[in-house]
Amino acid sequence: MAHVLGVDIGGSGVKAAPVDTVTGELLAERQKFATPQPATPEAIAKIVATLVRTFDWTGPAGVTFPGVVVDGVIWTAANVDPSWIGVDAAKLFGAETGLTPLTILNDADAAGVAEMRFGAGKDVTGTVLLLTLGTGIGSALFTDGVLVRNTEFGHIQIRGKDAEKRASDHAREEHGLSWDDWAGRVDEYLEHMEALLSPKIIIIGGGVSRKSDKFLPLLTGLRAKVVPAALQNDAGIVGAAIAVERAHGRAIVPG
Ligand code: BGC
Prior knowledge:
alpha/beta; about 260 residues; single chain; 15 strands; Nucleotidyltransferase, domain 5; 7 helices; five-stranded mixed β-sheet; 2 domains; binds beta-D-glucopyranose
């Protein structure tokens, strides 16, 4: 059994919990702090360190980030402070928390990894697409369970605009859209993604997946099965924890 701290950095909150990576269960109640504004590297690193202290954690940790992450370095930051770009986040969080090993990955990739292991994508072969509809739109693409990292499908152009500016949950709230109107936008976006990728299933994650009965029945014309994420709000935390195992081998921490 391996116990790993999972930390999920989002546009509105930073949350964490220790995870049993064998069962996918949280070992303690999830703790959450509001994302500091501006969401600079220093401010977020301090919150991560506070969460680590809250759990008195000394073992391995996995951390998600809402942007492109390559070898621990941040390449994009659409919904957090642009000063993140170019920062070696693995080094920064390692120095601030003292934790090792520590792995950083994109937030939607983490959610996807968790859904494939424990949730809506379990045992599904072929192409699976997970889209998180939250502050932005995150994506995770799998073929036979293998992740293609950092796909960034939330930035595909629909009607000349970034898809996430039209079809994220934030866009729904910001423009005061009815479920019907918003579902129309989501439908148009999903049809576009389906035309490009032909996934067997599309998993919808993010906070709004809890309200899937309000919009999934309104979607039309897709061949793919569209299903809500099973782990909902915990997917990022669980996926971050699993990613540590993947990056550093399975036998890191006997729990
Ligand atoms: C970012 C992605 C992220 C998504 C969800 C997008 O704006 O570019 O990297 O996964 O938001 O947070």
